[in-house]
């Protein structure tokens, strides 16, 4: 698809994605800093990281990695991924300032994709998957609060919608990938207040959203 674009238009679109991504990162960072329980994160790295992710989303779209109707979903997800990871690494918590707004943000993105793409079944599957994925993490949290925090549970519910929109199989893939990332983090150093699981969940969800396979939405 990118080869079909005029070079000047491709440059403009690329710059637009980078600028919009940086803006999204800054807005999310501002929300964390102004929250009732503030969790300020370094603004430049978060803005740059989000811009890079949005550029990657743009590249996947330009190269025909998935149907155009899927675009709102990875954009919404990557808008929150870097600031949430930064907050979890720094404070070992996933603030409500971003985990709660993730629900309407992802819902809007998935609904837009459903309307432009395969139809209502996409949104219905996302809703069921969100309930299942969030409920599973809630059960783990209830059994072992030291293993999984309340913020992880809230985030899991929102991410479950994105995973379900991709496919049913994405739920299992993401759960395994998230566990692997968390285990790898546990080996890197001693974490005084527990190993952050949010980065693993977000990394897995981003990979699934960026590489959902040709049967996305099926």
From TrEMBL:
Residues 76-185 form the Prepilin type IV endopeptidase peptidase domain. GO terms for biological process: signal peptide processing. One of its GO terms (cellular component) is plasma membrane. One of its GO terms (molecular function) is aspartic-type endopeptidase activity. It holds the Pfam family Peptidase_A24. The chain crosses the membrane at residues 6-31, 43-62, 68-86, 98-116, 122-143, 155-188, 200-217. Keywords: Membrane, Transmembrane, Transmembrane helix. Belongs to the peptidase A24 family. This is Prepilin type IV endopeptidase peptidase domain-containing protein. It comes from Amycolatopsis bartoniae.
């Amino acid at each position: 698809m990118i080869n079909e674009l005029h070079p000047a238009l491709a440059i403009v679109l690329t710059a637009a994605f980078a600028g919009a991504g940086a803006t999204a990162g800054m807005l999310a960072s501002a929300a964390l800093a102004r929250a009732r329980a503030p969790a300020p994160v370094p603004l430049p790295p978060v803005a740059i990281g989000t811009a890079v992710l949005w550029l990657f989303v743009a590249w996947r779209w330009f190269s025909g990695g998935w149907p155009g109707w899927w675009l709102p979903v990875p954009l919404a997800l990557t808008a929150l991924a870097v600031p949430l990871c930064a907050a979890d690494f720094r404070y070992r918590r996933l603030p409500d300032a971003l985990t709660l707004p993730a629900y309407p943000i992802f819902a809007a993105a998935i609904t837009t994709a459903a309307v432009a793409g395969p139809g209502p079944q996409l949104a219905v599957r996302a809703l069921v998957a969100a309930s299942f994925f969030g409920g599973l993490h809630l059960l783990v949290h209830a059994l072992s609060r030291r293993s999984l925090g309340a913020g992880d549970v809230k985030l899991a519910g929102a991410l479950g919608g994105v995973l379900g929109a991709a496919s049913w199989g994405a739920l299992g893939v993401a759960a395994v990938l998230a566990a692997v990332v968390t285990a790898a983090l546990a080996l890197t150093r001693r974490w005084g207040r527990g190993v952050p699981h949010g980065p693993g969940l977000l990394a897995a969800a981003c990979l699934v959203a960026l590489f959902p396979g040709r049967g996305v939405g099926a």
